[in-house]
Amino acid sequence: MSEDVQFRLIERKLLQNPKAVLAGARKGSQMDIMVLSNTWTTPPGNVSAEEAMDVFLTHLQEDRVPTNIADKFVHEANLAFASMLGLSKIGPFLSEDGPLVQRLVDAWPGIYKWSVFLFSTRIEGLERTNTRRRATLDILSAFWYTIEHLDVVREAMVKTPATIEIATRLWLEEDGGPIPTKMDSPAGTCVLGNMLKFADKEALNRVLRVSGGKTDELAKLAIARLQRALKGPAYNPVHITIYMDFINSISRVASHPLRHALLSANIIWIVTTALTKISVLVHTSKDDGWLTAMVSAFGYLRNCLESTEGFTWIAQSVGAGLLQAICDCSPRFDGLDPEDYNMIREIVGEILPRYLVFRSVIEGVDSALNKIERGPQKKRVEKSIIWPEWKKFADLAHERVLVLSQVDAFKGHSTTCDNVKAHGLYISYATGSMLTPQRSSVKRNAKLLLGRRATTKLRANSSKGNVWGRAAPVSKRDYQFLHYFSMFDARMHLHELRRIAQRDFPNTPLTSLVVSIDHTTLPATYALKDLHTYQIGPHPMGTMNAEARNEALIEKVQQNPDRFTLVEMEVPAGQGSHMVLALATGAFWGKEGVDDEEFDHPVASLGRMGGTYSREVALKRIVARLRKLMRDDPLMRGLFDEEEGQ
Fold it and tell me: Which domain, by its residues, includes 486?
């Protein structure tokens, strides 16, 4: 009698007398356990999960593992293999606090030893052309993925030696080799990605050691699989979600080489362009899986946009269509879980606005908003639940564009000279730039001022990755705009600063105060510090040389408080921040009361629109102030004038 005929007979017997087949499988009947492992879930209820688990765990006991790895296909190993197949179907019957879960935890030592045995004998011990090797890869992957969905089981697995290493091998060989997988999902990616769900640095290092530390190759493989899934013409949202979740898992540690390698391989651009494609399919397809894929893409961007210096990846994502994708996806936001929606809200309402101090980001956002406001996307976002956050962000962006346009209107696109005699202005970048009081030293030390690649313009729309996941250095144009903006911002808040001085320093001359602006928070905060006790302290992203230069600058101001006013502005930089120091003349404060009426207005602050005025009126008032400021204020004129004879 052929195996096919035997299988059908026992399958019929399982329907008519399931207890007999269960008993035979428990005793070690190869045909009974083969039928049971393949068909016990159909029809539902014919065999309970408890009955099936009892049989399968019997053959996965620790004391049944052969001591000789040469016994690849002994009867006990075949029974264990079939039991793993059977348990790979038990997922729908498991719950975190159910009795079956504890049975799996108790059985883990035996499951682990059998997994190592089968991996050693039937994967490492067989040629890649052997069909049994491919079957073992598939079944072991499916089994591990099923049981590691339970937090308590996954924790036990991660703590066990060699599990992450085996999972890495399953991932590496998921779609490789001469024999294709028969799985309908990327099981290897599921196994390793889920095992690394809460990965720390050491867990990711274990992955690296399996590949010989080849981070670039691991990153490229993960990205290649995602890109294949995105090519179509038939898209599978489940597969796309699995691949993106995996990339999120191996990016979990911000400082780890795996995240850096992914950034170098252009992952921000790739995920953002994937999101733009998903933003269409989430409406045109009836498959709710696209909603999950959308959340996964936003999740990765939420976690990784602020990598390294932050502004590089934000500018790149904006250039790849992030803002358009947000608008297109926005009609679906009201159907998300609160936690998922809050993640997207943080991108729009907290992350993006804080980086609107960099010229590169402002220009990219302005270009995207112009396209959005001319098309149907604006109406979509206006009708969505994220509209209040979006409007605040868009209004802030328009204000910053106005500042940028005024800078360019007065200077074209040229740069300024920082000669203190000509302009009354010192500039220092607290993260390591040169203090440059002489025009000649600006030119001579340009590379030192901004880093080796200081004059490299940030290409927000570039499809090229960055070396070793590092952000591009602050470009010269970004760097200069930060200085202009710090002075604009301080002057635009002059009335507020005077009120703070009256409240907090009533007996201190204005010339003995340091202006402190913090753009790492929303809204930005404005404060004053006592010049005589002021110190910038060690900056987490600074250098010893930068700190020494800053100390010298501060000492100079402290010795000449009537001649200079120090303005510090902190801006976001990924996981840290940059500190920009600008040194204005003592004329910064003007005469008491002169500018009070000019600046005492509900929209006097950049970044906060007055609620009683329309946006158009408010923006016109800001433009008028900026023009008057630059026309009448010698200090601000000095910012934009070229030195005679330059």
Answer: 414-640
Q: How far apart are CA 396 and CA 504, in angstroms?
A: 29
Handedness of CA 339, 340, 345, 350 (dihedral sign): positive
Residue at 615 is within a domain: yes
Closest of 256, 131, 132 to residue 206, by C-alpha = 256
- ∠318-319-324 over CA atoms, to 5°? 60
Per residue in 128-163, pLDDT (tens digit) is 999 999 999 999 999 999 999 999 999 999 999 999
CA angle 474, 478, 479 (to 5 degrees): 70
Q: What is the mean pLDDT of residues 180-200?
A: 94
Look at residue 19 and tell me if it is in a domain.
Answer: no
Do the domain assignments include residue 231?
no
* β-bridge pairing 576-585 and 525-530: unpaired
Six-digit token string for 272: 């953002």
End-to-end Cα distance, the chain: 99
CB atoms within 10 A of CB 253: 17
Long-range contacts at 560-565 (CB < 8 A, ≥ 24 apart): 561/509, 561/511, 561/512, 561/531, 561/586, 562/511, 562/586, 564/426, 565/511, 565/513, 565/514, 565/515, 565/589
Q: Which residues face 570 on adjacent strands?
A: 518, 579
Cα distances (Å, whole numbers) of residue 258 to 240, 265, 274, 409, 467: 20, 11, 20, 44, 13
Please say whether the beta carbons of 520 and 577 come within 8 A: yes
489 found inside a domain: yes
Length of the chain: 646
Residue 172 neighbours by CB distance under 10 Å: 17
Which residue type, as a one-letter code, is found at position 462?
Answer: S
Query: Token pair of 119, please?
Result: 């991996």
Q: How far apart are CA 292 and CA 38, in angstroms?
A: 30
State the Cα–Cα distance between residues 232 and 344, nearest whole angstrom.
26
- The string of DSSP letters for 235-281 reads --HHHHHHHHHHHHHHT-STTSHHHHHHHHTTHHHHHHHHHHHHHHH
**Total tally of structural domains belonging to the chain:** 1
Question: Using one digit for the tens of pLDDT, what is the confidence trace for 34-68?
Answer: 999 999 999 999 999 999 999 999 999 999 999 99
